[in-house]
Design brief:
- The structure is a single chain.
- With about 300 residues, the protein is α+β, with helices and mostly antiparallel strands.
- The protein contains ten helices and seven strands.
- The strands form two sheets. A four-stranded antiparallel β-sheet has the order 3-2-1-4.
- Strand 1 and strand 2 form a beta hairpin.
């Protein structure tokens, strides 16, 4: 299956898929059989989001990913976030005030909680629901995804064997393939937002570096994983001492021209950005405890 990602100047993004398969063999399909006909060709055009942003050169960027590439990237990110385990699909990390769910450890805040990091789990739920996936009772709301029902990590851990948690975990297992598609969709949406946030003088280089990385499956993996891992870098709440650590900041640090060398340069730039984040972080967050793991993850972008 080919996923063709098209980003046009006004920011209209479309995903065109040519064949339906799942990311991995599962006990049950994540979509109704009559909706997704296996081994039949279909055309799906998804308008994800629209932004109005100033024009810049080379305003068209297309990415082609095969079904094998999407499957491989999804599995690698699942390994990065959850060690490839089903139990890891429902996590609440020590030192954090939100649940981390699914193969991308998508953030879900409890009621009334607003953190500096973008909440992504409700967007995932809306995405997979639009594809026909059945939601567990826990995720049913009136017009929106309800907040995380567990208010703390302690509550979350105590609920590991409850009916609600088992239903949530089953839902996440059944939609692994759709979660991989969501990760690709998030990358699609990132470029217009980054170009809108970047300084006018930096936009051409940001788009150039983005396009360099999209020329190879390894580069696409680096982009998809990092934007899920550390965000687009466009939120001003995701700054320490005025400096961000998202995809935008990594692309701004790159200056090369070679397509084949782009993943290696991206990995080097990401290490600098993440190390700077830890140095700028408030001391009470003790972020140095995570840096070794972050750098090990970034090494996978260059195969190191």
């Amino acid at each position: 299956m080919l996923h063709k990602i098209i980003v046009s100047a006004p920011g209209l993004i479309k995903l065109i898929a040519a064949e339906s398969r799942t990311l991995m063999d599962k006990c049950r399909p994540s979509r109704k059989h009559h909706y997704w006909q296996s081994r039949h060709r279909f055309l799906l055009v998804l308008s994800l989001s629209t932004w109005t942003i100033p024009p810049w050169p080379h305003s068209l960027c297309a990415i082609n990913l095969s079904h094998t590439d999407v499957q491989r990237i999804g599995k690698r990110i699942w390994q990065n976030e959850c060690n490839g385990t089903i139990s890891g699909l429902t996590s609440w990390n020590e030192g954090e005030d939100f649940a981390s769910l699914g193969i991308g450890h998508f953030i879900w805040y409890p009621k009334g909680r607003q953190g500096p990091f973008e909440e992504s789990f409700p967007k995932l739920v809306s995405f997979v629901s639009s594809r026909g996936a059945k939601l567990p009772t826990l995720l049913l709301g009136v017009g929106r995804v309800p907040p995380c029902p567990w208010n703390s990590r302690a509550e979350f851990l105590q609920a590991q064997n409850t009916v609600e948690m088992n239903q949530l975990r089953r839902f996440l297992v059944d939609t692994i393939d759709l979660q991989a598609e969501f990760l690709v969709a998030r990358l699609e949406a990132s470029l217009p937002k980054m170009l809108a946030e970047a300084a006018p003088a930096d936009r051409t280089n940001v788009q150039k570096q983005f396009e360099r990385l999209t020329k190879t499956p390894q580069g696409c993996y680096a982009l998809i994983d990092y934007v899920n891992f550390k965000g687009e870098g466009v939120l001003h709440t995701e700054r320490y001492q005025g400096q961000g650590w998202g995809l935008l900041q990594v692309l701004e640090a790159m200056q090369g021209n070679s397509d084949s060398g782009a993943p290696d340069e991206f990995a080097r730039a990401a290490k600098v950005v993440l190390t700077r984040r830890v140095q700028n972080a408030p001391p009470d967050r003790h972020e140095s405890r995570w840096l070794t793991g972050w750098l090990r993850r970034v090494n996978s972008y260059s195969g190191g």
